[in-house]
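We store amino acids, tokens; thus:
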Amino acid sequence: MRQRLYEYLLERPGGAGVDELLDLIFVARGRDPEFGARFLDGLIDGDERFRFDGGRWRARVHDTLSRAIGDTPFVVVDLETTGGGPDAEGITEIGAVRVTGGRLTDTFSTLVNPRKPIPPFVVGLTGITDDMVKDAPTIADALPRFLEFVGPDAVLVAHNAAFDMGHLDAAHRALAGRPLERPSLCTLRLARRLLPEQKRRSLDVVASVLGIGCADRHRALADARIAAEVLCVFLERTAERGIARLDQLLDFQRSAVDGRPFVIHVPRERLDDVPQAPGVYHFLGDDGRLLYVGRARRLHARLASYFSNSRGHSPKTLELIRSVHDVQTFETGSELAASLLEARQIRDLKPPFNRQRRHLPRVGFLKIGVRDTFPRLWVTQRLKSDRATYVGPFGSVEAAERAQGVLARLFGLRTCASALAPSPNVAPCALGQVDACTAPCAARVDEEAYRRRVDTLLAFVEGRDASVVDDAAARRDALAAGHRFEEAARAQRDLDLLDEIRRRQRTLGWVVTQQHFAVLLPTAARDAAQLYVVLGGRLVVESRLEAAADVLAAVAVVRERFERFQDAPLDRHDVEGATILAAWLRDRGQEGLILPLDGPDALAARLDEITVTLGDLQQRGPLPAIDGLA
């Protein structure tokens, strides 16, 4: 336990508070703060490696780190290895460059015999072969020579220092029986802080951004030289920020994008145990209070993205991470189930860090109303039981707006939201002026002619009339024949979008028009199936099916609720489920099975098939198919 605390403090030259260290030891809630402080004092106060100063515990090895950066020698090191994680005998080459006063001075270089074959991929990357290292010193000889070159006061530096320091530490533990307790600086971490606009920060990219040459890459000494030049530039930039001491520099590299320390209270072992499966996660505070609910397709990867010091973390996300002391996860078996569970828990539990409706996917629909004298074509994110015609779902509101622009132009329909009082004295908008709209506002089209255009659009959407596609193709061909290629390309883009709309309506049109369907998914353990039934655009049944009796019960519920929910208006909670299901339908691959419900007895009519499918879903392997399923 002491060693764990010591290793934690080695990573934090500025020290850590009592509560921060206690979180590494205890995960239970409601601990006595006075007892915790006394316990910690009794545990490490007599250990010479620790020092308590200014309300914070520090590692004594850092006492020398308050010296000026200008007086500090740095040794920039790069290793070539056989690949893989830290290995006492995985090093094949060590290269190092000393930096003093912002200048590159002495160098160190040696091949190392790893006493095992070098993988072909590594040989291709580095050019170091088994023959080249067969007469080279082993790490038992090379490491003491390297540490002698480093000297007692130098700070070790590397690009992605965790890799290089990990290998050096493993070798030192094997040879000396103790860890390599040296302060280290990472130019990759510094790049995250000093080059926040860069998405990639490999040594090549960072060097290129700073105008540094990259000759002879993937040999240790050459890479060490490049990293040393990067370090010199970074030391100049940190000096401009007022960072003058070594301990300030070491703390700076570990700070978050807001300049404050990046602190993680959740034990790493807890995060390592999280499965790579779809589900919902809860973030809990130090008192066990629920702070945040989220969903993930792969829980492990999602949580790892939170608890890594990323430049993409917003101030609110950093505040959340610093507040989290424990994590709970719930596997759901599917991404759809995770999305629905997340929405329900956010609505019921109201976690303080969840923003209103931010958890809902972005879905866009085109809507063609029927109540107006001159119906308009507009974009919406909500399905309603209002007998309007919906086209979609689209991947985003922006995608729906692009489709709106093309369809409105081709069919001459209005998109404006204002109430019309047609008059020849009205000046039409820009769309009317360029004939992209028939301008009913300016009385350029009467109600009957406009209605014919609406009917033509509805016929196209429903797959009954493809004349607009034929007209667009003829226009494209005529433009191409007249060498008006840019206009022909635009006509082709119109055709592509029309084809996409027809395909979307062919596969999902029954969902957004009828809005009655059932979804059957396997559970995480494949011991049952999860049934979701949508009626009138709302989720009205969410049931676990384990046996034929469960199917019969679900059939009875659907029959009882079908008429009641067919035309009832959607409330806010209904919209959440409808939006999530629409997004899942838009994106789904082979995750589940969908069954349209064209009447209250639709499930009952296929009872035998669904019961057989339930048994299939409880078996491992690919999902089965049912004839007639979309």
User: Anything to note?
Assistant: The first helix runs from residue 2 to 10. Residues 374 and 628 are 38 Å apart (CA to CA). The radius of gyration is 33 Å. The first strand starts at residue 16 and ends at 17.
